[in-house]
Write a structure and sequence with these properties.
alpha/beta, Spore Coat Polysaccharide Biosynthesis Protein SpsA, Chain A, 2 domains, eight-stranded mixed β-sheet, 44% helix, globular
Length: 277
């Protein structure tokens, strides 16, 4: 197997980083170097990361984080043939996560990137659980979407990422921007359902507005397509998602979440639509 470089981004990820680092040491595949870049953590994450004795660890100036630029810089420090990205709050769920994640590179010479299966944390809200089941799981649903990829736990060919680096200017969806460019070039990106990490976030309403406004701005640059009319892009799209939410919540006897779902789905659709103007 080729040598691997693991790049881990860190910013105030206690206690998740503790478990993520612990699981890295338990992987069946150990021929890797670990590169950690911290964005100015103040909760002890940076100090804990240093205790893990990574091959390279450094900090960037707080407030200067732009994902593509930070990743491109970290890649220049890597020596592996395969670059693995695993955020410090992504916790591998068994000893074979890394081995499984990089296996497709040996099985298919056309594979230039892979991404892992993400399962939600025990405290995830039912809407988060439902969204993750659709996006990840066996991959059968998201494979029919226009495009889907997640860099949070993933791997790329060093040759490819050097030739086609991340966009160093956009603040959101750097992974979607890069993977969409690769898709447009006809490159093969493989989802690996048996490479499993635990990773999810419960967003407040304020957090939803910030996230989806940022993603909407990024989508405008990525897809370069008209945003669509308000009725189709917001009203109808939100109603369809709410129908799926209603079925899921009823099945799991959590219908008390439905009022929140109404608010959240319309915020998601509206913020993306407005930001793409």
């Amino acid at each position: 197997m080729p040598k691997v470089s693991i790049i881990m981004r860190v910013y105030n990820e206690m206690p998740y980083i503790k478990y993520a680092l612990r699981m890295l040491k338990q992987q069946s595949f150990q021929d890797y170097e670990l590169i950690i870049v911290d964005s100015g953590s103040t909760d002890g994450s940076y100090e804990l990361a240093k205790q893990a004795n990574p091959d390279i660890i450094y900090q960037i100036t707080p407030g200067t984080y732009v994902p593509g630029r930070v990743l491109n810089e970290a890649i220049t420090k890597a020596t592996g043939d395969i670059i693995v990205f695993n955020n410090s709050d992504c916790i591998p769920q068994n000893n074979y996560w890394l081995e499984n994640l990089i296996r497709p590179f040996a099985q298919d010479k056309h594979t230039i990137a892979t991404f892992a299966n993400q399962i939600p944390r025990p405290d995830a809200s039912p809407l988060v659980r439902k969204d993750y089941e659709r996006a990840f799981g066996d991959g059968s649903i998201s494979s029919k979407w226009k495009h889907f990829f997640s860099l949070a736990s993933s791997a790329v060919s060093r040759e490819i990422i050097t030739q086609y680096p991340f966009n160093p200017t956009i603040q959101y969806s750097e992974d979607i921007e890069w993977s969409w460019r690769m898709k447009e070039l006809g490159k093969t990106i493989t989802y690996v359902p048996d490479a499993i990490v635990e990773h999810s976030h419960n967003y407040t309403i304020k957090g939803l507005i910030k996230r989806y406004t940022g993603e909407g701005k990024a989508e405008k640059e990525i897809y370069k397509e008209p945003r669509g009319n308000f009725i189709m892009a917001v009203i109808i799209s939100a109603k369809l998602e709410l129908l799926r939410d209603l079925i899921y919540l009823a099945k799991h006897r959590e219908l008390h979440w439905f009022p929140y779902a109404i608010c959240a789905r319309f915020i998601q659709r509206y913020c993306v639509w407005k930001a793409r103007a």
